[in-house]
């Protein structure tokens, strides 16, 4: 359901960026459990030893349901741009037990929670202090397996995103940044309108500041954390996620043609970079009307996305299209 975040001048002036190793850890765990989010991360997934992750994943599974509620205490708001994983995990371990109980109970009674999630949360609620220790230990295992070996590359990408947004803020102002974060976000007249499905319950966040948190593994979602005691935070997909991992092995072009048809396969392969309809027609050697028809079919099946730029319509491969073509989106 929609959420309109109400901000004041002090929140705007106090806007800050951060990045969170623990947030990446928890979202990476979600990616291992949700195949439809894996297209950008196939090379990363192949490098994992999933057997080492099994016990930790079982502990955390009721806390990362989809659909359902994820407790805020799992990922505290980073206090600065260089907060370490150990700092964040220490903050989780210091969560007051009454907050743990309150948030686990919200998840257990959530209207869309599956029965296995309710049962798992009931088990954790039986001894919340001990359960918090188990959760912290499981998060550390997930960090060691899912993120730590890859953190240098992930951190570089997050830093590049923050640098890009900071430059845009300096030259184009707040609207240029907030309206460019995600298609489900828009900013006008002191209200940040959120049209996604993952958010808190509190709309009036005036006087509490705002944190923007780029994430590699949040894609394709944008998430608004708004409920006290957390500082209001918007988590959004970082720029260039499709360039992070080594490309998948090249596929047999003939096999792609058998799947999609020769012309559509040629167009998908020609989209190594964003291009207009006329440019793609020349690249693939196909007539312009036929190219338009094939691109429409590719768009309707989630393999290509389009945006208008002046008089042109520019096309690019989606993550699914990139995975089929054997390249980066």
Q: Can you tell me the overall shape?
A: globular
The overall pLDDT average reads: 88
H-E string:
EHEHHHHHHHHHEEEEEEHHEHHEEH
Distance between the termini: 29 Å
Describe this structure in words.
The protein is 48% helix and 13% strand. The protein is of the alpha/beta class. The protein folds into two domains: 240 residues, no CATH class; 73 residues, Arc Repressor Mutant, subunit A, CATH 1.10.10.10. The strands form three sheets. It has a five-stranded mixed β-sheet. The longest helix has 22 residues. The relative contact order is 0.14. The mean pLDDT is 88.
Quick structural overview:
The protein has 329 residues and is an alpha/beta fold. It has 15 helices and eleven strands. It folds into two domains: 3-242, no CATH class; 253-325, Orthogonal Bundle (Arc Repressor Mutant, subunit A).
Write the layout of secondary structure elements.
Blueprint: E1 3-6, H1 9-13, E2 16-17, H2 21-33, H3 42-46, H4 50-60, H5 85-93, H6 97-108, H7 115-125, H8 128-147, H9 151-172, H10 174-178, E3 185-188, E4 191-194, E5 198-199, E6 211-215, E7 223-225, E8 233-237, H11 253-260, H12 262-270, E9 275-276, H13 277-284, H14 288-300, E10 304-309, E11 312-317, H15 319-325
Parallel strand pairs: 2-6, 5-7, 6-8
Antiparallel strand pairs: 1-4, 3-4, 7-8, 9-11, 10-11
Helix pairs in contact: 2-8, 4-8, 5-8, 6-7, 11-12, 12-13, 12-14, 13-14
């Amino acid at each position: 359901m929609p959420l309109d975040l109400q901000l004041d001048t002090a929140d705007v002036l106090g806007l800050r960026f951060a990045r969170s190793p623990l947030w990446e850890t928890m979202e990476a765990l979600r990616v291992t459990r949700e195949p439809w989010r894996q297209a950008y991360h196939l090379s990363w997934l192949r490098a994992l030893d999933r057997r080492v992750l099994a016990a930790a994943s079982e502990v955390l599974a009721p806390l990362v349901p989809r659909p359902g509620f994820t407790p805020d205490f799992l990922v505290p708001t980073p206090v600065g741009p260089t907060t370490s994983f150990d700092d964040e995990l220490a903050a989780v371990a210091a969560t007051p037990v009454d907050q743990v109980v309150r948030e686990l109970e919200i998840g257990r009674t959530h209207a869309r929670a599956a029965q296995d999630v309710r049962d798992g949360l009931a088990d954790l609620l039986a001894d919340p202090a001990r359960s918090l220790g188990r959760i912290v230990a499981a998060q550390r295992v997930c960090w060691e397996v899912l993120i730590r070996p890859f953190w240098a590359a992930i951190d570089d990408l997050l830093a590049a995103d923050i640098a890009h947004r900071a430059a845009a803020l300096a030259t184009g102002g707040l609207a240029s940044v907030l309206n460019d974060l995600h298609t489900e976000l828009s900013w006008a007249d002191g209200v940040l309108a959120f049209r996604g499905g993952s958010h808190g319950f509190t709309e009036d966040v005036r006087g509490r500041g705002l944190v923007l948190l780029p994430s590699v593994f949040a894609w394709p979602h944008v998430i608004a954390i708004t409920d006290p005691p957390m500082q209001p935070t918007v988590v959004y997909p970082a720029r260039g996620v499709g360039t992070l991992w080594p490309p998948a092995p090249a596929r047999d072009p003939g096999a792609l043609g058998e799947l999609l048809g020769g012309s559509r396969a040629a167009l998908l392969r020609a989209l190594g970079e964003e291009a207009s309809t006329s440019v793609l027609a020349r690249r693939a050697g196909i007539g312009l009307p036929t190219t338009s028809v094939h691109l429409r079919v590719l768009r309707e099946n989630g393999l290509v996305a389009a945006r208008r730029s002046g008089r042109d319509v520019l096309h690019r491969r989606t993550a699914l299209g990139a995975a089929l073509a054997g390249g980066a989106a």
